[in-house]
Amino acid sequence: MSYQLPPWLSLIAPPAVAVALVAALLVAGKVPLSYNLRNLRIRWKTTVLTALAFTVVVALLMVMHAFATGIQRLSQGSGQPANVIVLSDGASDELYSNLPLSETSDLARQEGVLRDTAGRPLCSREVYVFINQPVPVREGQRPKHRFLAIRGVEEPSVSALVHGLELSSGTWFSEAGVRDLSSANRERASTASPYAHVEAVLGEGLAREFGRDRDKESLEVGDVFPLGPRQGVVVGIMRGADTTFGSEVWAKRQKIGEIFGKETFYTSLVLRTDGPARAQQLAQWLSRDFKKVAVSAMTETEYFAKMSEVNEQLLGAIYFVAGIMALGGVFGVMNTMFAAIRQRTTDIGVLRILGFARWQVLVSFLLEAMVIAALGGVLGCGLGYLVNGMNTNSVVGTSGGGMKRLSFQMIVDGNTLAAAVLFTLVMGFLGGLLPAMSAMRQKPLESLR
Amino acid sequence: MKFFLLILKNLRRNKLRTALTALATMVLVFVVTMIWTVVYFLEAFTQEKSGNLKAIVTERWQMPSQMPLSYVGPLSHGAARKAGDKEPKDSMAWQFYIGTLDAVKKTRENMVVLVAMDVRKLPRKSQRDGKVIITKGMIDDLDPIDEALIEKLAQTTQGCLLGKKRLKALNKKVGERFKITGLEYTGIDLEFEIIGVLPEGRWDENGFMNERYLNNAIDAYKGFGGTKHPLDQRRLNMFWVEVGNKEDFSQVIEQINTSPTFSERPVKCETFASLIANFLDSYSGFIWFIQWVLVPGSMFSMVLLIANAISLNVRERTKEMAVLKVMGFQPWQLLVLVLGEALLLGTSSGLLAGGLIYFIANTLAGGITLPGSEPFPVPWMAVVWGASVGGATALLGSFLPAWTARTIKASEVFARVA
C-alpha cells in the first residue's frame, strides 16, 4: 500500500525543500546574500526580464501537468481493486470486445463473485458504445461534433454497486428503459421523433458539460438531450466526477444494443469479488480455464492502468516540450549572469582579498542565478495554480486502442508543484553554473587592476 | 553596406552573449516550429481540396465504423434508386483486420493493421511499349505499385503487402510467413505470406490483404452452438466513392445520406476533410491550447530573452553611442543600428533553427510524433517560419532598448565619464 502525503503537505513540501536547499548553500557559502540581492535590485530591469522568462516556462509546465494529473486521477479512481473485468479473448479494450449473450451466462455464477442482499450476483453486464454526435451551436457557427461514451447496463442498481457509484439526484432508469413524454413535454423538447425517449442517467461531469451547451450549470432530471439517432431524457445524475463513469451516459442495455446494433453481445462483464487477491485469482482462472467461451479477464485496476500508460506518454511529451523551453530560460539567465560578472570583476577581486574562497564566490553567484529563477518560478507557480479546479474535457486513447471521453478538473497537486519547483531550481542552477565558474576563476589582483 | 558591417562588428564584439542569445532563440523557435508543423498538417487534412471528387462512407454514429457487408452493393451504385440518380465512377470497400504476433504480450511493435480490400484497386504502374503507365487508383497518398506484384497478391489469397517500417518492426522479410491473432475479430487468427513491400510514405506502418481471405474466415467461423461471429454483420469499416464530375458529387452524397436502404445501420457520406474535421472537434481544446497558449508563451519568452540581451548591449555601449552621436549619427540611425543587430541575430537564429529541425526531424525521426499518432513530416516552410518568428520577436524585444539608445544624451554620458 503506497503512502500519500496529505494534500496540504504535498503542496508545501516542494517549496520547503527548495528553501532548505538554498538556505544550506547560503550557510555554507558565507558570502552575504544581501550583496547578491542588492545587485539584483540595482539591475532590476534585467532581473525582471530574466525572471519573467522563467515565469512563462513554469506556468506553462504547471498548466500542462495539471491537465495530465486530472486525467491520471480519473483513471486511477475508476478501477475497483476487487472487480474483475471480462472481455472477449484478444480484446484489450471494451470498445473492441464482443461477448455473445448466450455464452456468458455462467460467468456471474463463478465462485468468488459476491451477491447483493437480494441474492443477485454482483455482475454488471454492459454494452459500451462510443459515438460522434453533433453539438448544439449558435446560429452562424460552424457545426461541431463531440464524442460521447454510452454504457448500456442491464440492472443499473447492481452495476452501481459493482462500480461503487451512487446517484446524486433522480432515479435509475426503469425496466423498459424508455419513457413516452407527454405531448406538452415533447413540444417543449422540440423533438419530432416518433420514438419514446431513452431514459438515461448522466455522469456529473457530463451533465455539467451538456449544461454548458445551454448556458446552464448542469442538465437536470427531466431535461431532454440528443442521444445518437434518438432523444434521451435525464432520469438521474450519477456521482462520480472523479471517475471515467462521470463522463458517461448510462441507459438500458437492451435499448442501447438495439439502437446501435449491439443487441446480440455484451462488450464486457464486470464481476465484484471480496478483495483484490480473490479478483486476481478469478481473473487468472477465467482467462486460462473458463471453457464455455474464450475470454480475457483482468482486474479493473489493471484495465484502467492501461489508460495511465498512454497518460505517461503524454507526460513525457509535456516534459520534453517544457525541457526545451527551459533551455531557452537557461541561456537567458546565463546571459544575465555573464553580464553581471563582467561588471563586477572588482567586487570579485575584493571578495577574494577579504578571504572568501573560490568555491564561496561560486556559491554566491550560483545563488544569485537561483534567486532570479526562484523569483520567476514563484510567479509562474502562482499563475499556474489558477487552473486548479478548472473544468475541461478530452478524448483519451487507451493502449488497447479504445477511446474514452473524459470531463474532468485540472489538478495542481504536490507532484505538479514539485515538477515546477524542480524545473526552476535546475534551470537556475544550470544557467548560473558556467558564469559562477568563470567568476570563481578570476585572479584577485587582475580583477582589481 | 557600411552600416551592415557595423552591425556585424557589434554582434561579433561579445561573441558569448551573441551565441547565448542565438541559442535561446533557436531553442524556442524549435518549440514553435514543432507545434506549427502539427497544426499545419491538421489544417491541411481538414481543408477541402478543390477538385476533390472522392467521398467516404462510414457509420453515422459509432466509432469504430462497422457496417454490414451487404451495403457494398448499393453503395457502389451510389445508392441510386430512381431515374436521374447519379452513380459513382469508381468505389472501394475497406475492412480492417488488426492483430498481433504475440497474443500474450501485445506491444506496438508486434501489432499489424491490414486493410482488406479488392487489391486490384491499388494504384499500379506497368510497362507497355517502353512506356510507364500509371493507374492512379483510389488511394491518393500511396505511390503506384508494380502491376506484377499486385497480380501476385490478387492470386495469393493469404498474401499481404506491408509497409517498410512495419516489416522492420516485425523483423520479417519478403517471402516469409507469419500468423496473427485477431484482436478485433477475436477467434479469427490468420496466416499470411509477405508478397512485397509498399512504396515508402504514409503507409509505412500498415499493409494490405485480400478481402476474400478475411470474409471467408468470418463466414467459416462457428461460435458456441454454431453461432456466427459477433462481427458478421459489422465487417465493412469504410467505403470510398469517386464521382466523375463536380456536379454529380453533391448529388451522390445526398443519395447515400437519404437512402432508406441504410436505415438499419445509418451511414453518413462526406468528404475525407469533413470526416477528419468532425473527429478533431473533440480535440479542439487541446489544439487551441497548443496554438494559442503554448506558441505565444514561447514567443513571449523569446521577446523577453532578446530584450534582455539587447538592453545589456545598449547599457554597456552608452559611451560608444554617445561618440557616434558626436560624430554625426542621427538618433534614428542609432535606433536602426540596434534594431538591425537584433533583427539579424533573431532572423539568422530562427532560420538556422528552422533548417535544423527540417533536416534533423525528417531525416532521423521521419517527422514529429505526438503520443499515439503517426509522424508529421516537417514541411520546408519551417525554415520560413523560423526566420520570421525569430525576426519578429527580435524586433519586438529590441524596440525599447533601441529607443533608449536613440535617446542617449552625449553630454550626460561624457559628464559621467569626466
Order of helices and strands of chain B: HHEEHEEEEEHEHEEEHEHEHHHHHH
What level of helicity do the residues of chain B show? 40-55%
Q: What is the mean pLDDT of chain B?
A: 88
**β-strand amount of chain B:** 15-25%
Determine Rg of chain A (CA atoms, Å): 29 Å
Give me a quick take on this structure.
Chain A is an alpha+beta fold. Chain A is built from 13 helices and 15 strands. In chain A, a hairpin with a 2-residue loop joins strand 8 and strand 9 (230-238).
Note down, in words, how this protein is organized.
- The complex is a heterodimer of chains A (449) and B (418).
- With 449 residues, chain A is an alpha+beta fold.
- Chain A has helices at 7-29, 33-42, 44-78, 156-163, 183-188, 204-213, 253-260, 276-289, 300-343, 345-353, 358-385, 414-440, 444-448, and strands at residues 83-88, 99-100, 123-135, 144-153, 167-170, 178-179, 197-203, 224-227, 230-238, 248-252, 265-266, 268-272, 295-299, 391-397, 403-409.
- In chain A, the strands form 3 sheets. In chain A, strands 1, 3, 4, 5, 6, 7, 8, 9, 10, 12 and 13 form an 11-stranded mixed β-sheet that branches. Chain A has a two-stranded antiparallel sheet with strand order 2-11. A two-stranded antiparallel sheet of chain A has the order 14-15.
- In chain A, helix 1 (7-29) packs parallel to helix 12 (414-440) and helix 2 (33-42) packs across helix 11.
- Chain A is elongated, with a radius of gyration of 29 Å.
- The relative contact order of chain A is 0.20.
- The longest helix of chain B is centred in the last third of the chain and has 34 residues, at 331-364.
- The two termini of chain B are 34 Å apart.
- The model of chain B has no long low-confidence stretch (mean pLDDT 88).
- The chains are: A alpha+beta (449), B alpha+beta (418).
- Strand 3 of chain A pairs antiparallel with strand 2 (62-63) of chain B.
